[in-house]
Amino acid sequence: MTKAIVIQFRRGRKNYTPRHFLIEIHGCDSKEKAKKFSGKQVEWHSSGKNKKIIKGIIKDSHGNKGIVRAVFERGLPGQAIGTEVNIHDLEVKK
Predict the structure, then answer these.
(1) Whether the Cβ atoms of residue 94 and residue 68 lie closer than 8 Å to each other
(2) Per the CATH hierarchy, to which homologous superfamily does domain 2-91 belong?
(3) Domain residue spans of the chain
């Protein structure tokens, strides 16, 4: 299991996609290293009393500095930006 940080929504100049997030992985600093995480499962755990878990999949790298793009099954709340997510080493079947 690898730790990572949610950086931001994936967005454009005038719109954003609420299920797509940019994630920075600890120790991943190049596009080649980020490509290795493609297809892995991501989990975000809420810190509230309900302890919700929202799962997603890493789709591809984003840029040249090791950032990856993850698509979650439903959108994360705004409070998730800056928090940690867990990346599991299991490949998700497509």
Answers:
(1) no
(2) translation elongation factor selb, chain A, domain 4 (2.40.10.190)
(3) 2-91
- CA dist list (Å): 92 to 12, 85, 87, 88: 28, 17, 12, 10
Distance (Å, rounded) from C-alpha 94 to C-alpha 88?
16
Residues 1-46 pLDDT 10s:
899 999 998 888 898 888 999 999 999 999 999 999 999 999 999 9
10 Å CB burial of residue 28 (0-12, 13-18, 19+) is buried
| Amino acid at residue number 52 | K
**Residues ≥6 apart with Cβ < 8 Å to 78:** none
| Beta bridge partners of residue 16, listed in sequence order | 11
List residues bridging with 88 in a β-sheet: 41
Tokens of 80: 């998730």
pTM over 0.70: yes
